[in-house]
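thought: fold this chain, then report.
action: predict
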Amino acid sequence: MAKDTAQDGREIEVLGTCMTQPDIDAQHEHNIPPALVWSYAQEEALVGVSAQHAGDKCYRLLPDAEDRARRIAARYAGLYFKSAKKSAGKVQFYWPALAAFVVKDIVEAYRFDREDVLEGGWHTAARTSLIPSVVSEGMSGASPYAHAMRVYAALAKGNLWLYMDIYPWLYFFLRFGMNKDGSLNEARLMDHVTKRDATEYQQQSRAAVEQLPFGRPWFNRQQARQAQDPVYKRASQYFDTQPAWGGMDGGYGAHTAAAYQAHNYVKANIPRDGDNYLLPVSKYWSKFREAFYVLDEARRELTRIAQDGAAFGRLEKTAKFPVTAEIQDAYGYLIAESRENNPASKAVSQFNELQSIAKHEQLNVLQPLIYDDAKLKETMDMNHRFARMSDGLMTTKYRVIYSAEPDTDSADLQTVFDPPPTVWKQFFGARKSLPDPDDRMQYVKQIARDFHNLMQTQRDYMNGELRKIQGWGDGDKNE
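observation:
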């Protein structure tokens, strides 16, 4: 976040400027430069995943990726409903409705990583405690904790930055592209869509984007804090006087005792202030049975990401939020929808908008941000192999569930990635890879078809579930 200093010397985090037009129907036709209008739209995205502190009135990013995901899901659902209301039914955003369900599933993925992997237990059969040498010898990668941390970090990065990219595109359309009577200001929409550039934002808005998690400045702070972490340093000392794994003088027992002390020390002393540099944040750690091993893997994964210069380059390119052909096409489909009176024709425009933004989302944003990471691909392919072979018992399948609930027994309310057609192929057949753009886009197209079918045949049900997800937000009073 952009930084400032209070009168008492405290460093505070500032997100843009105070909201000046809380009423979404307020209309001002002043000739405001596009850069400032886009700054306003970006600020709205930032505020959506932040909390305003009572004392200094400054917005601070929610430190917990899971809390941010709930807000993001609610904001997407809000765009779906509010676009129809403000346009008097002429336009209803379609992609955000699907995105609300997808982000709801990301919330469940976080929970799975925490409770079914990071908390340890019998079901984490190959957990690090069975391979203590990973701590002393740096053999990271053998532990499910490492894989869970890799997925958790990728979800946190991809979900936040995708929201920072797409939410302002749609919020701008809603806030500045619709007239009071619900008609569209087509000239402004088609002119301004080409003029979004984060490097030209108002200074505080620009700085706030630059300081977001997973950017260079954030990682510089994170790595400095990690290097000075007194909890990790003290917990590591429990191993200093113990023989290595398999040593001649009872190494296993001594190592186990040292690990037990290290785990308890981490659980008792990890910061309780919602630490912005821990994944997951500290409030969850009291339940991690092997907290020191989890902390060790978290540090390794964050250091690995911090050393990936190519990934920083891809993020910085994406974080300028340049217009793409897919976003321009989506604006065109929304304008076409506004001109249609026939429900079937409107549905075609909505489906086209959905597909266009989905292509932008997957290929222009998520592919460079997370899926081009070779290590993440290894982890995701391994997870898919175990999920497919165990029919979801060993780890969760990759799927979208069209419900506000985390799970469903209905085959009609879910789209599963790469389901095996036969039992033999479940174990021995070729498998697709979700990080592969061709495989993933085939899956995304199936999701779009299934979602569209449900929206056409079970709209009341889908609206009801989306209302529940919208309720996860903070009231969205500024939308």
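thought: worth noting. The longest strand covers residues 2-5.
final: tokens above.
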